[in-house]
């Protein structure tokens, strides 16, 4: 029997495993364009100014935008903030260049729904090897023959700002590109848009790939075909998204680095907002009932065994 999640509702006809992996033309051409611009940035317009623009814009969009705005706030509702702050954070998350707000919720929640069933196909489980998974995740989509009903709660789905951002999510880059062009010329646009988006998309895929295959597990959820793994050492550059075993264990928690020494800049940013009076009701690991079958595994290194021929995995 298929389980429902907060936004995904299977019917009797729904199958979680019957589907096709199809080339996603728009997504693929978007990434290839960004990679071309990234190569141009590095080879034709190298500069310390461009490099600084890249670092600052990547840090803001990934930390405040993707990790805090999109993931911890919009998708998991792990803390509360005034709507204008939420809009800014989610908009910054859109600038990462992956999808609009609704597309991000859908991609996250469909994957999460797949990973909560007894059997998870290789696309949503990151079951394929490195290169094939890269192609599948960054250039293709997984179309189920009989998909479940997917429903975003009305206060998000009917939000006029989110609807506008969703409709024009690629064009949001113009709000970064035009000021960069006016100040630093085409070179800054290549560094601050193309290189940033290319690195963000590839980096996001890599974290997702490895965080479902190898690392310090920390927590195990019995009966599930896919587990999350912590990737120690990557806290600062992923802004805390590397603590993925913790995230599978406590999906509602605003804090991803739940243990001592687990660096989590995204959570520091939320605490900073709290100090300014702009965040409250911040959820921690124990603020919701424990997931069924959750057990602590001592920090043992666990590696997922993959059969690259069929791309199905087992532990
Ligand atoms: Zn996961
Ligand atoms: Zn999540």
Short description:
The chain is mainly alpha-helical. The chain has helices at about 25-45, 50-75, 85-95, 100-115, 130-140, 155, 160-165, 175-210, 235-240, 245-250, 265-275; strands at about 10, 20-25, 140-145, 150, 215, 220, 295, 300-305, 305, 310-315.
List of distinct ligands in this structure: zinc ion
> Which class do the helix and strand fractions yield?
mainly alpha
Radius of gyration: 19 Å
Question: What spatial form do the alpha-carbon principal axes imply?
Answer: globular
- Kindly state the percentage of residues in helix: 40-55%
Mean pLDDT: 93
The N- to C-terminal Cα distance equals: 22 Å
When the domains are counted, the total is 1
Uncertain spans: 303-315
Strand content: 5-15%
Sequence of secondary-structure elements: EEHHHHHEEHHHEEHHHEEEE
Structural summary, described in words:
There is one protein chain. The protein has 315 residues and is mainly alpha-helical. It has one domain (24-143, 150-314). 49% of the residues lie in helices and 10% in strands. It has eleven helices and ten strands. It has helices at residues 25-44, 48-75, 83-94, 101-115, 130-139, 154-157, 160-167, 174-210, 235-238, 244-249, 265-275; strands at residues 8-9, 19-23, 140-144, 149-150, 214-216, 219-221, 294-296, 301-303, 305-307, 312-314. It has a two-stranded antiparallel sheet with strand order 1-4. Strands 2-3 form a two-stranded antiparallel ribbon. The chain has a two-stranded antiparallel sheet with strand order 5-8. β9 and β10 (312-314) form a beta hairpin. α2 crosses α8 and α5 (130-139) runs antiparallel to α8 (174-210). The radius of gyration is 19 Å and the shape is globular. The two termini are 22 Å apart. The structure holds zinc ion (2 copies). One zinc ion (ZN) binds next to α2.
């Amino acid at each position: 029997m298929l389980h429902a999640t907060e936004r995904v509702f299977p019917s009797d006809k729904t199958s979680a495993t019957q589907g096709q992996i199809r080339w996603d033309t728009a997504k693929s051409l978007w990434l290839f364009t960004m990679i071309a611009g990234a190569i141009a940035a590095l080879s034709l317009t190298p500069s310390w100014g461009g490099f600084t623009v890249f670092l600052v814009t990547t840090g803001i969009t990934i930390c405040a935008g993707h990790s805090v705005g999109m993931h911890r706030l919009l998708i998991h509702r792990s803390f509360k903030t005034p709507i204008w702050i939420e809009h800014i954070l989610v908009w910054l998350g859109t600038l990462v260049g992956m999808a609009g707000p609704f597309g991000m919720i859908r991609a996250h929640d469909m994957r999460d729904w797949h990973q909560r069933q007894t059997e998870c196909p290789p696309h949503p489980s990151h079951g394929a090897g490195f290169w094939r998974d890269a192609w599948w995740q960054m250039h293709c989509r997984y179309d189920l023959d009989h998909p479940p009903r997917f429903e975003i709660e009305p206060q998000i789905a009917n939000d006029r700002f989110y609807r506008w951002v969703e409709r024009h999510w690629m064009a949001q880059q113009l709000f970064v590109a035009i000021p960069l062009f006016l100040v630093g010329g085409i070179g800054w646009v290549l560094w601050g848009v193309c290189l940033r988006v290319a690195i963000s998309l590839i980096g996001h895929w890599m974290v997702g790939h490895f965080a479902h295959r190898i690392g310090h597990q920390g927590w195990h959820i019995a009966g599930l075909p896919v587990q999350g793994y912590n990737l120690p050492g990557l806290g600062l550059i992923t802004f805390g998204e590397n603590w993925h075993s913790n995230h599978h264990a406590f999906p509602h928690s605003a804090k991803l680095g739940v243990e001592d020494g687990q660096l989590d800049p995204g959570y520091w940013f939320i605490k900073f907002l709290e100090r300014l009076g702009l965040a409250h009701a911040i959820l921690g690991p124990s603020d919701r009932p424990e997931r069924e079958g959750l057990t602590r595994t001592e920090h043992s290194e666990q590696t997922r065994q993959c059969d690259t021929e069929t791309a199905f995995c087992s532990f």
